[in-house]
Amino acid sequence: MQTLRASKCGLSTAQLPSSILDVIDSLTKAGYEAYIVGGGVRDLMLGLNPKDYDAVTNATPSQVKEVFGRRCRIIGRRFELAHVYSGRELIEVATFRAPPKKAITSAQGMILRDNNWGTIEQDFARRDFSINAMYYQPRKGEVLDFCHAIDDIKTKTLRLLGDPALRFEEDPVRMLRTLRFAAKLNFSIDPKILDVFTQEMTQLLRDVSPHRLYDESQKLFTMGHLHRVMPMLIEFGIWKQLFADISPEITQFIERAAKNTDQRIQMGKTINPAFFYAVLLWNNFLARCDFYHAKGVVAAEARAQAGLDVLKRQATRTIIPRFAETFIREVWEMQSRLLNPKPQQIEALSGHARFRAGFDFLLLREKSGDASTNGMGAWWEAYQDMSTDEKERAIGSYNRQRAKSRKKLAEVAPVEDVKAVASTQIEPLVKEQESRSRRSRTKPNSTSSQDFRSRNDARTAVNKGEITADHPITKRRRVQRDLSSVIFGPTQS
Prior knowledge:
By secondary structure, the protein is an alpha+beta fold.
């Protein structure tokens, strides 16, 4: 172990938020050891802006709870942690851990329970990567380096602590973390890791909870370097373990969506990780829609059932939360509404809660070379920047164009279709020639006039109280009833 001065590592308390300093000071005041550890220290050394800060201490989760009271909440079963709230910030506080016992590991070597408390030296050995194993004490201005991690930061090398095969067996998710850190930090992967990073090793991810794999996939999507990590997922065989039936290829649509996501993150804009899942599963959704269309299912019902099928299949790898599934299906449903909107519904459609997500999806499809959009992506893009009068004119022009296209479809059918229709018409058994005399042609009219007179006579008779042969009561059908089956009197016992 070597103790480094924080100032020489480019660290100072001025870089730290008050929330993490509050947690460290409170634990130290209570008589416990407390350090900042993990990605926060690493990113500060690399000149990056840490997303969050984690603390580590020799106090157990219950003791941390005693220090912070109602501000603390203990979570986790496999890894018991303490979540401490400082204002609006959430600080994750872990306890020093000892090596796992054989009794709490699976047959594949994966750790099932990890709540054995230990010393800081034992906790260091339990860390995955060397660059995440530096302990920073801000008040003392010290950095504890147990494995020469400062050298790995200088050389930009991603190195696992201990035997890489054993570390992957303990927690297969470390394979995902390896690719994520390599893409995010632009680090090279240690050759010892590459030697054991095989297709057989990736099969261990099948033993990981689909819920946890979904959380890890979200970290891949939101780290800001998605376009860089996607080819790595295919190269190292991780793709098949994360995505059920998605073809392992980076299409133009996926590539453009990945770059667009990274740009939004770099610009500080918000993103919905479920959006990229909608992009990845789009082709599977279309194929399933075609399947139901071939069976004669109505279009709306086919889309609904196809969405359920695709998401249910993906749940065998990563279980997408219900709210995210709803978002994905709504984005898919918006595509049909945006492609062929009714003129009177365009204004209301532009104010829909999922309009922006659906429009972005449609525009990405169009820019990726999807000819089925018919230029509606550009139309909606221009529509949003128009004034009220310009929108009315645009809607009118769209309505006329829509009417022209309908007229073309409604034109005379081909000769073959006409012949087919004519052949199916039923011809009369007896062909009577129409008479040319005036008297014969007026007979139907005279007959109708007679019927009219008889109806008037019947009405007159009814008004007088008389019942004639033409009265409706005389024309009612009488129903023969079998009285033997009729029960007279009360039926309740």
